[in-house]
Structure formats: C-alpha cells, structure tokens
Amino acid sequence: MELWTSTHGGALLPAAVLAPFVGMLLGLALGGRQVQRVAFVLMPLALVLALGLAVAWQREGQTLVYLLGGWAPPLGIALRADGPAVAMLLAVAGVVCGIGLFARADFGTPVGAPESRAAFSYWLLLMAVWGALNLVFVSGDLFTLYVALELLTFAGVPLVCLAGSGETLRAALRYMLFALCGSVLYLLGAVLLYGGYGTLDMPLLAGMVRPGPVAWTALALMTVGLLAKTALFPLHLWLPPAHGGAPAAASAVLSALVIKGSWFLLLRLWFDVMPGVATLGAAQLLAGLGAAAIVVGSIVALRQKRLKLLVAYSTMAQIGYLFLMFPLAFEAGVLVHGAALSAGLLQAISHATAKAGMFMAAGLVYAALGHDRIADLAGVARAMPLAVMAFAVSGLALMGVVPSGAYLAKKLLLDAAEGSGQWWWTLVLQGGAVFTAGYVVLVLVNMLRRPAAPLQGVTPVSILSQWAALGLALCSLLLAFAAIGPVSTELIKNPLDARDLGTTLLVILGGALLALALSRRSLFAAAGAPHRDGAVRRVTMVLGMALEQFDAWVRRWTSAGLLMLLLAGLFVGLLRVGQAA
Amino acid sequence: MSVETLFALAACALVGIGLYGLIVQPHPLRKLVAFNVMGSGVFVLFGALAMRGAEAGMAADPVPQALLITAIVVAFAATSVTVALLLRLIESTDNASLADEPSAGD
Is any Cβ of chain B less than 8 angstroms from the Cβ of A351? Predict the structure, then answer.
C-alpha cells in the first residue's frame, strides 16, 4: 500500500474540502439572499462529491492519497482518505443536507422579507463547518489537523451566538476560551512530536514513534486538549449553555457534527499515529470518563426544566458512549483497527443523525409553543404529531433499539468486551441504554399527557422542517442496514424477535423507573396540583440534587482547569506504567 | 547552558504562566492574554527545536518556521474573534463576567 504518492481519484480529496469553502466565499461575495441559494446549490454538489469519493475508495481498494503540489512528505503535505474518513465524509454530507432542509424555515429569506444578519451568517457558517470537518477527515499530518480543528472552532463558536443575546454571547465566549486552551495543549503536543521525530506526517510518524517521555507527554497533552474540545466529562463546562442556547438549526450542527471533529482527531492519534504508545490503562481511563459522562449527563438531563437544555445534557452523556470503544480495541496490548473501531464510528454517525433530529424536534416544539418548559408540554403530541414522532424515533435510536446504528455498535462492543474479558464494560454498555431511556421517557410522558385546557395559540411550523427532523431520526434508526456490507448480516435481527423486544421493553421500563425517581417533578403530578413525594423519592431527589451540584462545581473554570491538568498527569502516568508492565 | 536549553526553559516558563492565567484569572480579557502568553511559549519551543534539529551546514530547520508562521496567524485570528465576541458581550450586557449565574462565584 502506497501512502506517499497520489492515487487515482485522489484529486477528489481537495475538491471535497474546497467545495464548501468556495461556496462560503461565493456567498460572502454575493451577499444577502444569494447566500441561501449558494448553500442549496452546494449541498447536492458536495453530497455527490462525497459519494464519488466513496466509490473511488471502493474501486481503488486502498487509501486515497493526494499530494498537495506534488510534494511528498515529510516536506510536503498529503491528504488521505481511508475507510473511517470516507464513512465520516458521507455521514456529514448527509446530516448537513438534512439540517439545511430544516433550517430553510428558520433562516430562509423569502422574497419580500428583509435580509437578516443571523440568516446570512448561518449559511456561511454551515458551509464553513462542513469544509473544516472534511479537512479534519482527510488531513494526513498533525499540523494540518490543527489548522482544520481551529477552523472548525472558529466556525462553530459564532453559531452559538447567532441570536446575539447576552446569555448566548457569554456561552460562545466560554466555548471559545476553553477551546483555545485545548488547542494550545494540542499544538504543544504536536511540537514535541516534531522535536522528537522530525515529521508530523501521520504514517511516517507511526513508523518512528517509540514509547518514551516525548511520546507519553505529547499523547497526554494532545488527548486532554482534544477532550476539552470534545467536551467529555469532566471538561464539559462550555457545552450545556452553548448547545442549549443556540437556535435549533445551529444546535443541531454543533451537537451532531462539530464535536465529532475533535473526537475523530483523537481516534487518528490513538489508532493511527501512536497505537504502540497507547496503553490499556490509559484507554480504561478514557472509557471510565465516558462512563461517568453517561451517568452524570443523563441524570442532570433528567433534572432540567427546559427541553433544549435536556437535549444538550443528553449530548454530554452521548459523548461518553463514543469513548467506550477505546479499551475494547486492544489486541495483544496494541490498539488495532477492528470491530471496536467500526463500532465507535457507527456510534458517532448514529449519534450525529439522531441528535440532529432530536434538537430539530425540540426546536420545532419551542417555535410552536413559544417556550420549551418540559412541565408544560402537555398536548404537544396532538398539536404536532410529526415533531413528537421525530423526538421519539431519535430517542429510540439513541437507546440502541434494533435496527438502529447504536444497536449494532453496542452489539459489536459487547462481543469485544466478552472476547477480552472486560466484563465491566458489558455492564456500562447495557446500563447506558437505561439512562438514555430515562430522559426520553420523561419528555415523551409530558408530551403525550392530556392538557388541562386545549392548547391555544400554537404557531404553525414548517412541514418541511418536521419531515427533515423525522427523516434524520429514521436514518439513525435504520442505520444498521446501511452497515450490512462491511459488517455482517447475522448481527441484525428481527426487531420483533421475542428476546430483542424483551430487552427493549426492559430498557424502557428501567428508564421509566429512573425518570420516576429522579425527575424534577413527579411524573404522576398533574399540572398545578399539589403532590406529596414518597420516602424513596425523597431520597432519590436528594441524590439527584447532589449530582446537579457536583456538575455545577465541575463546570466552574478553576475546577475544570485543574481537572484538565490532573487528567494530563494521569495520562502520562498510565502510559508510562503500562509500558513498564 | 546551551542557547537551546535557555530557550526551552523560557518556553516552559511562558507555558506555565499562561496556564496559570487561563485557569485562575476570572476576567475573559486576562484569560485571552494568558492564552497568547501560553501560545508564545509553544512558539518559542518550536523555534528552539528548529535550531536543534537543523541539518549540518544549515542555521535552522526551515519546516518549523513555515509551520510557526501559520500557527501565529491562527492564534491572531483566534484572538481577534475572541475580542470581537467580548466587545459584543460588553456592549449588550455591560458586564464581561463569564459566570453562568450571578451566584456561581467564578
């Protein structure tokens, strides 16, 4: 396999990266209402480019390579697309198109309507996020990845404060500063690697890097920096206000796509650059943080008053899932590309589609009612069945019901956990779905409740937006079928099979119990009526409140900063100890 | 002590000061300055490494210099975006605090 010469079809790589940026610049130059038109011309075009790339990759049967200007690394820069990159490129193209259709209602500029700054910025930023993500997926060296990651942050941060209110500006500023801290740590790691090995090209580096102080420090610093950008617990201080406060179409981009950029870079680093340096102990810490994210994120989600914040905390919990595959991908002490990595990618794609759908559904409810207080959602199911359906379907997809992508990912990871004898991850994988079910059930119960008085003054919302939300949610629910080729057909079962149906019901039942115990208001309490809690619920309420306080403490700057340093130290220690053993 | 070691120690000090400022200073502008100090530390380190890693007969390895100038541009862009955000925040709220609610004391 040749990684240092351009391959046939390699020219598609710069095209896939440049297309969104050309669209963005064109939109900026043409201005006003043309921006949206440019975006809508670009979307199918870039989708076709991504498909073309996938076809070329399939035909070549190897990694696609393009050398910029014909200069080979280590002096030149190579763009490369392997299996994971192609999968992510395709998924992002699909999700961006779905979000674009949804956003037409919110950020479209119909003939006769005045142009608005928010709409103008939104389409530009959407294209910028897309281009930056494509660059993250195909970059072949650690410095280009740094630039791509910064582009992604610069495009993502303004999406948070499109509304321009003080609260969202503050959320954006927090996000920006914390992300900058993460990126300096990443750059420091990259600089150390250059100092140690004289190149930043990933395959070249992979061939040279040896466990030692330079590699340990670099990997630890870069990992922690990227965790801060991905918002893995306990470095999530910026995520809830940023994702919860942005307009729905922007939240969908941020939650579904932007965080996947830094996560993907972390994959590259661990699996492709330093598979021999990474140790099982360090991977256990990474997955342990993921497990903590699932528990804390899900329970704090249950205690939210507002739907969009609940969905934002759900994102924090779901980020945890993306890290569970790290300890399961070890074979004979070395990280390998295998079933666990496929499962992780599948999980990321599945979350991207489902979470975009969920944020859209929450945004539609907000637009229709003028509020998103969870306690006052009664009657919404009758008023806007499509949006509620979208929420329910994306919730089921996140829980990992057959045949969703998350189900297949869970199945692969469970097999890996059994194969490697790490039974504790089996527990986390099975229990995680219950936590997800908790907040989905809580929201659905409130949405399906009969209102005390018929809902008045529901603003009609765009049908197209509702279908876009439902479409993305369905994509996630049916994702396992798309993965049949590379994986195996045997893994997908009939969803109505007695065993699977039983598991699904058990998960939902467990979720209902969690919601009963930990929600802010009792599920049985009718709106406005006084309600007395039982003894058990009083205890669980105290637990929930304590966890909420803990989350608030972790999200303070000083605690988050110190935890960041602590984690960096722990990673260095675990990398070192693991090598000695 | 060689020049490279001196530069490396200076880089350590700058990164340390920057990290301290980023974590401890509550005002966003101070955090931003701290980010720039920390970034400068990384740049100094990169420059020192370029000096050490040079081929025989060359004053310095040119690749880090090309990367450095890009990194400086990126850091400049980051600083200007952050300042723009901060100005908008002060304009709309008369308050540059990063705290979520007034009660959270950070």
Answer: no
Cβ atoms of A436 and A314 closer than 8 Å: yes
Which domains does chain B carry? 3-93 (1.10.287.3510)
Contact B35 A172 (CB under 8 A): no
E strand or H helix at A452: none
Question: pTM value?
Answer: 0.92
Per-residue confidence of chain B (106 residues) as pLDDT tens digits? 788 889 989 999 999 999 999 999 889 999 999 999 999 999 999 988 888 777 667 777 888 888 999 999 999 999 999 999 999 999 888 877 777 554 333 3
| Closest alpha carbon within chain B to A182 | B35
Contact at 8 Å (CB) between A547 and A299? yes
- Looking at beta carbons, which residues of chain B come within 8 Å of A169? 85, 88-89, 92-93
Chain B neighbors of A176, CB-CB under 8 A: 78, 81-82, 85
Please count the residues of chain A.
581
What does the DSSP assignment read for A453-495?
S----PPP--HHHHHHHHHHHHHHHTHHHHTTTTS-GGG---T
Q: In this structure, are residues B96 and A180 in contact, taking their beta carbons and an 8 Å threshold? A: no
Residue B54 is classified by DSSP as P
Nearest to A250 by CA among A382, A360, A380: A360
DSSP A76-102: S-EEEE-HHHHHHHHHHHHHHHHHHHH
Q: Which residue of A has its CA nearest to B31?
A: A177
Looking at this protein, which amino acid is placed at residue A14?
P
Query: Which residues, in sequence order, are CB contacts of A84 under 8 Å at separation 6+?
Result: A137, A264, A267, A341, A345
